Amino acid sequence: MKDAVTVVGGGLAGCEAALQLCARGFAVRMYEMRPVRTTGAHTTAGLAELVCSNSLKSEAEETASGTLKAELDAMGCRLLAIARECRVPSGSALAVERERFSREVERALAAYPGFELVREEVTKLPKGPAVIATGPLTSDALAARLSELTGEENLHFYDAIAPIVELSSVDMSRAYFGGRYGRGEDYLNLPMEKEEYAAFRAELVSAKTVLLRDFEKRELFEGCMPIEEIAKRGEDAMRFGPLRPVGLRDPATGKGAYAVVQLRREDLAGDCWNLVGFQTNLTFGEQKRVFGMIPALREAEFVRYGVMHRNTYLNSSGLLNASFRFEGENVLYAAGQLTGVEGYAESIMSGLVAGVSLARELEGKPSAVAPDTTVTGALCRYVAAAATGFQPMNANFGLLPEAHGVGKKERKRFYHDRAVAAVRRFVAETGFNE
After folding, report:
1. How many domains does the chain divide into?
2. 340 and 383 Cβ atoms separated by less than 8 Å
3. CA distances from 150 to 69, 146, 319, 329 (A)
């Protein structure tokens, strides 16, 4: 067994980092504070719990999310393989049955004799080599220690979670299955006429919200904008966002709608479905009342209401290098949303990079960062040296070098092919998977 390494945090990033380290022969002690100390968002004590949604987004090759997944596959990602074993139908998206996914991740870690899980809160920075992957709900005590280390105050914004309803309570006479442009039947569509939409929006923008006490200042990340905040931006804001009706027609009538709410399954059995894009900060009573104005949800039974929670992240630019290592002599890495990457697959990527990079450092191997023509490499470099004010960042093609001489229609395919070719060369030349 090689050197002992500490991983703080049992979320996606921490679990991916731990799996990478264990696979390379390191003893890993993982600290997870749940259930000894709970958070405002998690509902279980399981490792790798998916909080906001059960979807890891698209696997389509001509998307940044799909390209990132192809890169991670080439780099030996462990969690994506487990996710595919636990997937539920969701069109081109990789969605999973959450509890099964968590159990399988725990099983994969427990299979390593050098892995130890400690259920307690960490209030000080570990001594010796470590990965800090405490996520958006980092405890106050550890956040204070990170502030002392970095000389910067932790920044924060608020994240939001969408509600889940029971399928049996949905009025199927006002709903139909189908993907956009007839692609599959993995989504449940709830159409709304113009008058219904207008009445729904009027109540939504004036509904009571939960008072936020944690901070005086509230910063909302665009990728998790509450539905009521979108509604306040204008009459058609939701219709150009999560309620867009484009490409959707009732197969029984061939009729389109003024607006369409989409539901995505939560479990393989299809008993529970979440409201896509309906992250919210409405009180539970208001969610029942206002969301019940959607025709198909008038008698809906909510398995879980939506909530908002704190999301803490470092001003990583200048604090971390492109391998997610803190500057300085301590062998200390960060991973996950704490670093300013935003999204499930992005968090997994950071855990993979941090775990492999830490292993390489302890083995005396040179640091290796994927090329900037890959989504992985571009995100790593963004975290290390954002050119302007640092904000959390999802995978997107806008981070990549421009595709000169490539037509607009061919550009996304070009980005994908270039990135996958580049990451495969990177892995072969550096021995990144070894």
Report:
1. 2
2. yes
3. 31, 6, 7, 13
CATH of the domain at 388: 3.50.50.60
- The verdict on 296 and 372 lying in the same domain is no
Query: Is pLDDT of 407 > 90?
Result: no
* Residue 15: closest CA among 118, 133, 161, 103: 133
- Predicted TM-score (pTM) of this structure: 0.74
Task: Check pLDDT > 90 for residue 42.
Answer: no
Whether residues 27 and 61 share a domain: the answer is yes
Residue 187 pairs with which residues in a beta bridge? 264
User: Could you tell me which residues come within 8 angstroms of residue 210 by beta carbon, excluding any fewer than 6 positions away?
Assistant: 281, 282, 283, 307, 308
The Cα–Cα gap between 98 and 432 comes to 30
Residues 131-177 have pLDDT tens digits of 999 987 777 788 788 878 877 554 556 667 789 898 989 999 999 99
**Residue 349 backbone dihedrals phi, psi, to 5 degrees:** -55, -45
Same domain, 9 and 112: yes
223-258 exposure pattern, b = at least 16 Cβ within 10 A, e = fewer: ebbbbbbbbeeeeebbbeebbbbeebbbeeeeeebe
Asked whether the beta carbons of 392 and 339 are under 8 A apart, the reply is: no
Q: Which domain holds residue 322?
A: 2-156+312-430
User: Among the three residues 306, 332, 349, which one is the final residue of a domain in this structure?
Assistant: 306
Task: Give the DSSP per-residue string, 19-69.
Answer: HHHHHTTEEEEEE--TTTS--SS--S--TT---S-SEEEE--TTSHHHHHH
Return d(Cα 345, Cα 351) in angstroms, integer: 10
CATH of residue 297: 2.40.30
User: Where among 291, 306, 321 does a domain terminate?
Assistant: 306
For 112, phi and psi rounded to 5 degrees?
Answer: -90, 125
Of 369, 309, 414, nearest to 75 by C-alpha is 369
| Residues 318 and 293 occupy one common structural domain | no
